[in-house]
């Protein structure tokens, strides 16, 4: 059974969105059905039978309380107030995540589980998130999901210095060190674990003697480079040499004396700047005609439409990813069918993440293992969960997928 409480502001204005959200919240209540017996006709000569004891009614399981804190922004439903484009995107994201999360709880409730779902609007304001941290109903929850964005989470966690429940960061890959809460659960792996995943794959599968990191010089690459070098040094006991070089205008000639014409030359490019990538990848493509190259890129490349698939394929480009859905898998097909039936729309990435997280953490609550999730791995629709417990930082999911450009599409290789 799922009971839902809506702690959002009841506002007028955009009637369609208000109606949609109202239906969404009211639809969260899924009471158990009790069969009604049909009337029995009296027989002409009733046969007396000894009265049978009615079976004892099974007590209903204690409800596990989950508080969702999402940036719905319902204040924009007031008269003469409208959503900005960014605000509407966040509101849609919230609805999609909620729908996926609730569908997961519904599937658990069908087997007898009992959840109480409380929904709060953070308005995507750090000050509102801070205020919600003082709410006793949230403080007494068994699981808190959100706030979604790092600034709000930081303000919220600062209030709950000793929370009863774990605090789940559902969609942000922000490093947990920025939040500094021992009860935090970071589901989306931060960038350092992408670097570690790439280093581990290179060391175990390619086994090079050296790795070249091509940098643009922008400071945002520093964390990735540092994490990659630390991982490779640890994995190889510093036997694999990591050579980091700042490249300008695609000039790679300085590296030629260190390249091999027979063994695979491994290049890591942690850049996201379009101009730098355009020039550098063209230079690598030219170099690849004489020196075999295997390229590893930044996880953001998966979303970049300006990168040329034929070049990426020739360079045997790999990227790390935490969001790869196999739409041919049986579990995915079942989810899609159930989601369409429940909401009459196609699920988005946020809905899929909501479903995976709702199912995994709902099960952990039922099993009483919510505070030992480092012992329970999970294969979801979009990624796997493999948590480690870090003192002062809570639990962090470290699993990333390795994808490679093959036949002009990204395919999972590990």
TrEMBL record:
Region of interest (Disordered), ranges: 39-59
Matches recorded under Gene3D superfamilies: 3.40.50.2300
Biased amino acid composition, Basic and acidic residues: 42-59
UniProt name for this protein: ABC-type branched-chain amino acid transport system, substrate-binding protein
Species name: Mucilaginibacter pineti
């Amino acid at each position: 059974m799922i009971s839902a409480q809506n702690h959002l502001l009841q506002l007028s204005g955009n009637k369609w969105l208000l109606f949609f959200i109202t239906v969404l919240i009211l639809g969260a209540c899924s009471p158990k059905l009790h069969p009604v017996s049909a009337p029995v006709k009296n027989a002409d000569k009733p046969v007396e039978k000894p009265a049978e004891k009615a079976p004892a009614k099974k007590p209903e399981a204690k409800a596990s309380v989950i508080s969702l804190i999402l940036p719905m922004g319902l204040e924009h439903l007031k008269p003469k107030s409208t959503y900005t484009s960014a605000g509407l995107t966040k509101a849609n994201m919230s609805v999609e995540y909620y729908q996926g999360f609730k569908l997961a709880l519904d599937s658990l409730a069908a087997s007898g589980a009992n959840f109480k779902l409380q929904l709060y609007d953070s308005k995507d304001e750090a000050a509102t998130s801070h205020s919600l941290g003082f709410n006793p109903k949230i403080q007494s929850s068994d699981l808190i999901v959100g706030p979604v964005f790092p600034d709000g989470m930081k303000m919220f966690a600062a209030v709950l210095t000793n929370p009863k429940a774990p605090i789940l960061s559902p969609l942000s890959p922000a490093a947990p060190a920025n939040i500094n809460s021992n009860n935090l659960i970071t589901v989306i792996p931060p960038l350092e674990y992408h670097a570690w995943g790439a280093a581990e794959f290179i060391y175990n599968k390619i086994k090079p003697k050296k790795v070249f990191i091509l940098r643009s010089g922008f400071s945002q690459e520093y964390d990735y480079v540092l994490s990659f070098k630390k991982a490779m040094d640890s994995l190889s006991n510093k036997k694999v040499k990591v050579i980091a070089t700042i490249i300008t205008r695609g000039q790679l000639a300085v590296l030629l004396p260190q390249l091999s014409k027979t063994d695979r030359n491994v290049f890591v490019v942690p850049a996201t700047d379009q101009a730098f990538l355009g020039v550098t990848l063209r230079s690598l493509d030219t170099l690849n005609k004489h020196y075999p190259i295997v390229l590893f890129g930044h996880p953001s490349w998966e979303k970049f439409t300006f990168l040329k698939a034929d070049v990426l394929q020739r360079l045997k480009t790999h990227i790390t990813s935490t969001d790869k859905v196999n739409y041919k898998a049986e579990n995915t097909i079942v989810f899609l069918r159930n989601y369409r039936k429940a909401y009459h729309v196609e699920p988005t990435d946020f809905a899929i993440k909501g479903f995976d997280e709702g199912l995994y953490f709902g099960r952990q609550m039922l099993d009483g293992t919510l505070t030992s999730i480092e012992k329970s791995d999970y294969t979801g629709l979009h990624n796997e969960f493999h948590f480690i417990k870090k003192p002062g930082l809570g639990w962090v999911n470290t699993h990333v997928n390795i994808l490679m450009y093959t036949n002009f599409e990204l395919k999972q290789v590990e």
